[in-house]
Write a structure and sequence with these properties.
single chain; Nucleoid_associated_NdpA; double-stranded DNA binding; 3 domains; two-stranded antiparallel ribbon; cytoplasm; 9-stranded antiparallel β-sheet; Nucleoid-associated protein NdpA; alpha+beta
């Protein structure tokens, strides 16, 4: 990723006798190769996280307690605060939130301002640490603490360009929606003073339902429906990888090239949404896990987990709705080997 670092700083949070302490950095980091590599790795990890939420700062009409962070951000952006002072105020605010939620988190708060393409961003990220071992210069084994970048769960990226040019926009803040629990996610949003505006899972599920219904009502054969689903998946997946939104108009144009129809997908999506009384946006960020439903059947329950591609339904996999029976012809090699070993059958 090509990015230009403008300013960066790191503050430390540590545990001491069951309390969280804060050690403030007195100055910003010098830009060097190590810092650049860290931020490139961090932004790559952030971008690759499959589940993200999209938010904007609270307004007077929103419920919830306002956080000082948006005003601090504005003061810094308007050059009323310098970067170091702004970051220190943010760190102190985060400490208050950690104490308020009774969370004992040790790690580092990274705040960095950078440019990518034509946009300017502020990345606010809590970096967890992990204990490891290292070999000292005298060849002894020592314990060491390392940043655990792959386990980052508390991170948000503010599109400063969009925030200043379109303050009424609803998704100039993106954040990781991980498995750390609702309490942790809520605490980080409270710290930033923002609220989630776009439900990406719901919007993506609406898209999946619309694509499948469009293929059905267009009178396409099974293979053609699968091809249409694949086209939708590949387009949406590429948009997700690039960090771009899914645009109904662009997808409609791709469908029209593949299977020309009097009723465009763009028009159908609006009609279908009205019928279901579920609005679908003209463009929205996709949810990676929900997208897979376009090309894969999967489910679990009662001790059974099953997943297979749409293309094998009716060939290797058969479903009888009358008896609710799924028949699989030819099991995957690793599953077959496990079963044969379990029953004592020679390979």
């Amino acid at each position: 990723m090509q990015l230009r670092i403008e300013e960066s700083i790191i503050h430390q949070f540590y545990q001491n006798d069951g309390q969280v302490g804060l050690r403030l950095a007195p100055s910003a980091l010098n830009e060097d190769e190590q810092l650049h590599d860290l931020l490139v790795e961090l932004t790559d990890v952030y971008t690759s996280k499959p589940a993200k939420g999209y938010a904007s700062f609270l307004t007077e009409t929103d419920e919830g307690d306002a956080s000082p962070f948006p005003e601090q951000l504005k003061s810094w952006y308007d050059k009323e605060l310098d970067f170091v002072e702004f970051s220190q105020q943010s760190a102190k605010l985060l400490l208050e939130q950690l104490q308020s939620y009774n969370l004992l988190e040790a790690g580092f708060l990274l705040i960095t301002r950078y440019q990518h393409l034509s946009s300017e961003y502020l990345l606010v990220c809590f970096l967890p640490v992990k204990e490891g071992v290292t070999i000292s210069p005298d060849l002894a084994v020592d314990r060491s603490s390392q940043l655990d970048i792959s386990k980052v769960q508390l991170a948000a990226r503010i599109d400063l360009t969009e925030w200043r040019t379109a303050p009424d926009a609803e998704r100039y803040i993106s954040f990781i929606k991980g498995r750390a629990g609702r309490k942790v996610s809520d605490f980080f949003l409270d710290f930033l003073g923002c609220t989630e505006r776009v439900n990406t899972k719901e919007q993506t599920q609406q898209l999946v339902d619309t694509v499948q219904e469009y293929a059905k009502q267009s009178g396409l054969e099974a293979e053609q429906r699968q091809a249409l689903n694949k086209t939708a998946y590949e387009y949406c997946d590429e948009q997700w990888k690039q960090g771009d939104s899914v645009k109904i108009k662009d997808l409609s144009e791709q469908f029209a090239e593949q299977y020309p129809s009097d009723n465009s997908f763009e028009m159908f999506s609006k009609e279908f949404a009205e019928q279901r009384e579920k609005e679908i946006a003209d463009d929205f960020p996709a949810d990676k896990s929900t997208l897979r439903k376009l090309v894969k059947f999967q489910g679990q329950g009662g001790g059974v987990s099953v997943g297979f591609d749409h293309t094998v339904l009716g060939e290797r996999v058969h479903y009888d709705p009358a008896t609710d029976t799924l028949t699989i012809n030819g099991t995957p090699p690793n599953l077959r080997d496990q079963l044969r070993r379990y029953f004592g059958i020679d390979s």
